[in-house]
Design goal:
Helices cover 23% and strands 31% of the residues. It has 270 residues and is of the alpha+beta class. The protein has a single domain (24-243), classed as Jelly Rolls (Sandwich).
């Protein structure tokens, strides 16, 4: 009995370490002031976000806590340390697998999540909403996937998921998986062969899925995983914007394992 409980505890710790490692960038946007977004992920590297062309008025009530308002003219946020982020997605032992999650409130069509290299001579929009409300996702240089239609002037949750092991691109809009997906090889060194990966929020792009305009609206709770999250994990993100997320559920598993371990030891002492 004691060995069985110990095994549960060990499995819990291993599971926790694995899931935590998958979340490589997380901007909760709950700072409420300033020009820098802190990274709340468990990555060994902290990827901060820089607010560009945005002042204190950009801080607004978001989907969960604070969020950021984008004026649709020239506002955007971009991460630092792109050379390291690129290695976490495409370096040794990685095949470009990625899950990107964000909450958005759009007033019109525009780019929600973009990707660029260091010199910005290579770029494309990854998540974009059109004026019709249609939301599309894409990783370079695959065909895009339509996730359905989101109403303007309301909060919605969008997820892009690419599984490098199966070369499959799909996504979710408000917890609902796309009707179709795309199975196609992507470019495994997409950043102009520089190895630098930057994921600007709200940045206009001429290589786009609609009209490529600057995003007009609000954004909140941005996450990047170097793992293809399961449908259940994505449902958790949708149902709990800043609550129980995949890595948090592992903490619960660890707590349960520790409790069982302690109870097991006490039982042996009686």
């Amino acid at each position: 009995m004691k060995h069985w409980i110990t095994m549960i505890f060990i499995i819990a710790i291993v599971s926790l370490a694995s899931i935590q490692a998958e979340l490589i960038l997380y901007w909760s946007m709950n700072e409420g002031s300033g020009s820098i977004l802190s990274d709340g992920s468990n990555s060994t590297t902290s990827y901060t976000g820089s607010l560009t062309n945005m002042d204190s008025s950009a801080w607004v009530q978001g989907r969960s806590g604070y969020g950021l308002n984008f004026d649709g003219t020239n506002d955007y946020v971009i991460n630092d340390k792109g050379e390291i982020l690129g290695s976490e997605l495409f370096g040794t032992g990685h095949n470009g697998t990625i899950t990107t999650s964000i909450w958005f409130y759009a007033r019109r069509g525009g780019v929600i999540v973009d990707e660029v290299n260091a010199s910005r001579n290579w770029h494309d929009s990854q998540i974009e909403i059109l004026d019709t409300g249609e939301v599309r996702v894409r990783v370079w240089a695959m065909n895009s996937v339509s996730l359905g239609t989101a109403s303007l002037n309301n909060w919605h949750h969008v997820v892009l998921r690419y599984n490098g092991s199966t070369s499959t691109l799909d996504g979710f809009l408000d917890g609902q998986e796309a009707v179709s997906d795309v199975v196609q090889e992507r470019n495994n060194n997409p950043y102009g062969y520089s190895g630098h990966a930057y994921y600007p929020l709200g940045l206009a792009d001429t290589t786009n899925l609609g009209d490529g305009r600057y995003f007009s609206g609000m954004l909140d709770e941005f996450r990047i995983y170097n793992h293809a999250l399961s449908s259940t994990e994505i449902s958790q993100l949708y149902q709990n914007p800043s609550g129980i997320i995949p890595e948090a559920s592992a903490f619960l598993f660890v707590a349960l394992g520790l409790t069982l371990y302690i109870l097991g030891k006490k039982a042996l002492w009686i």
